[in-house]
Design goal:
Helix content: 40-55%
Structural class: alpha/beta
Shape: globular
Number of helices: 13
Strand order of the largest sheet: 3-2-1-4-5-6-7-8
Low-confidence stretches: 1-5
CATH topology of the largest domain: Rossmann fold
Distance between the termini: 35 Å
CATH class of the largest domain: Alpha Beta
CATH architecture of the largest domain: 3-Layer(aba) Sandwich
Radius of gyration: 22 Å
Mean pLDDT: 94
Length: about 325
């Protein structure tokens, strides 16, 4: 992990699972963290949860320092003004409630210093839904993590139309320094990219269960031991690229009509047009020339072998048996 040369103070608003996860991320990156929650009992529980997570990370040798070092950087506040005073970045982590987010960001905009970036961990709500009327809306955006963020180290950075580009750049730099890969979205859309991808799979999974095609446990098995295992090494576009000799263009020609029929069956008519396939093909050929196709396939296979070996040798990972 990367430790920035100059660390700032990060305020985290909300001490639930996402808030405590962010505290681990920023604390381990060397930042001073102030974790706020209005409920003292929740803060006390959060302290124990953070200590437990840090101990696990140390056991697996994926912590920069020691748990005590990280905990020393984290303070717990029941006063929001105290938490955000002097902070360079504030990360909101309250439940997905539009009215609550509107009220909270109005407070944050009043309390935070003008240079402080105000970010939401929202999973579905874009910043324009809760910050469009605020005087400081130029410094507000969504920074949506996967859960838990200290393990799934990628975030969606989603500016609103009114977000200052410099705020986006600063946020991306902050995330990079905390060893979080920032995926910049080109516009606002409900659910962003992560949850739209996840939702597409879940919609089909629910339909297959509803129609009596496959059981709940077997859906989990198909994803856990096949699709998910492979996607933990390479993504869906690269998977399609490597699954068909001739690459993703050949895959689209062969499989596209079938996927289009399945989509229409579910009421979704979004065929892969020639232009769209060409756009994706161009991106893949820039990433991987076809003369490297066989070599990359072998790399994928070796990575999968390493994962399977880890599953077999570590009881904590041996979760792929019968449910």
């Amino acid at each position: 992990m990367n430790i920035q040369a100059q660390q700032s103070t990060v305020a985290i608003i909300g001490a639930g699972s996402i808030g405590t996860g962010w505290a681990v991320v920023f604390g381990d990156a060397g930042h001073k963290v102030r974790l706020f929650d209005a409920v003292p009992d929740r803060l006390q529980a959060a302290c124990g949860e953070i200590a437990e997570r840090l101990g696990d990370l140390q056991e697996f040798d994926i912590l920069n320092g020691t748990p005590d070092n990280v905990l020393d950087r984290i303070s717990f506040c029941t006063d929001m003004a105290e938490a955000i005073a002097g902070a360079g970045h504030a990360q909101e982590c309250i439940p997905e409630d539009l009215a609550a987010k509107k009220q909270l960001f109005s407070q944050l905009d009043e309390l935070a210093e003008p240079s402080c970036v105000l970010a939401s961990s929202s999973s579905f709500l874009p910043a324009s839904a809760f910050a469009a009327d605020l005087a400081g809306r130029h410094r507000i955006l969504v920074v949506h993590p996967a859960n838990p963020p200290f393990l799934l180290r990628v975030v969606e950075i989603v500016p609103a139309p009114f977000t200052d580009p410099d705020v986006v750049d600063r946020t991306h730099q902050l995330m990079t320094g905390a060893d979080m890969a920032g995926v910049r979205l080109g516009g606002e859309v409900e659910g962003f990219a992560y949850n739209r991808l996840q939702g597409a799979l879940l919609r089909e999974a629910y339909c297959l269960v509803r129609d009596g095609i496959v059981s709940v446990s077997d859906i989990d098995r198909l994803v856990r031991d096949a699709l998910g295992l492979r996607w933990s090494v390479i993504g869906p576009f690269e998977t399609s690229d490597l699954n068909t000799r001739g690459g993703i263009e050949a895959h689209a020609a062969r499989m596209g009509p079938s996927y289009a029929r399945m989509g229409r069956e579910r009421g979704q008519d979004d065929p892969w047009t020639r232009e769209l396939v060409a756009q994706v093909t161009n991106a893949r050929r820039q990433a991987l020339p076809l003369d490297k196709w066989h070599e990359r396939g072998a790399e994928r296979d070796r990575a999968l072998m390493a994962l399977l070996r880890a599953r077999g040798s570590d009881p904590a990972l041996a979760i792929c048996g019968d449910d």
